[in-house]
Design goal:
By secondary structure, the chain is mainly alpha-helical. It has a domain of 140 residues. The chain has 11 helices and 2 strands, in the order H-E-H-H-H-H-H-E-H-H-H-H-H. It is elongated, with a radius of gyration of 34 Å. The chain starts with 6 loop residues before the first helix and ends with a helix.
Length: 383
Amino acid sequence: MKIKPNIRKTFIALSLLIVVSFTIPAYAADGNHETDNNTTVINYDDIEDLVLENNLRLKSNKYSLDDMEDALDDLEEARDEIREMQREIYSLSGSITAPEGPEGSIANATKASLNVAGGSLGMSLPSTRDVREQIQLAELNFAYSEKQLVSASKELFLLYHQINDSLIQIERNSQLLESKIGKAKISYEYGYVLSSTLDDLESSLKELNNKYDTILHQKDLLLLNFKNLIGVKSSEDIELGNIPELSREFISQIDFESDIKEAIKNSMSIGIRKKELKNADASGKRINNEVKIRKNEIEVELKNQYQLLIQQDNILLLAENNLNILENKLTKGHVQFNVGNITKSNLDSLINEVENQKSKIEIDESNLFKEIEKYKAMVAGMI
């Protein structure tokens, strides 16, 4: 077997492929669950398994790891063949007996040449240590890319629902505005409304419709990206299940100091950095210093995420309080409408405000759920 001189470069190239390739979109693969009407329902808890089983980029990374393992096997086979050649050379050298006279000098020179050749072969034995270390580093990066793709897919799931809520809000606002325009046109015919007022209302409706179309396009693109990540064909009909129930009790149960220790212990970035430094033959002092730096960074990052979580919880509390205020106004509005103090249009506006606030709360709940999930993932090692 010929030993390729660039085999180590091949291993490094494969390692780098695994490190960076998870950022490239992965396109559809088979493997999903269909309902009776041929529509696949994707629930939040299904996402991790779907990504790990079907994502084509992860499969490609796995094939790269397999190629590296195969190359390592070839390298070890080459080492065995070289050792066998060494044994044969030394055996031949040992079997040579130097006679008296000129022939003895030739025999001794031959033995010396054979011994040199055997020694040279020993020096040319390719080391598998560097290759094994490259594979181990690639495996760490591969595991990290798996976690990142799962996290990204879950965020797209949540964002899809938020976009839906925004579209519902725009639809309600458009319907209310269309109703106002209809009444304004009647008033305009009788001279109660200026043409400029009617023009402003119609312009506002066009802006809303344009905004709706833009967001709808974003929703379609998001769904396509989500399908790619979970390995579903772009042509397949899917339906995203509901967002899991929000557990706000988790916030009050957070033990931040304990979570910092757990995050540092589980940190995948620390494991990757330590392996990179060891592969580069860094000193123990440098490795320890780099780890300390990363530990400090992790504490700051987790603290920031905790603050985001608390901030989002406060936003949700404020939204819920505003909903109570709007619902009280609506209750009074119904009474005022029944006694003729406000118009149907005024009442419809109050109803629309309440419904829009409910949609805002759904979005805020989704954001809080996302921040909690991210905090949990960081503690579990995604940091």
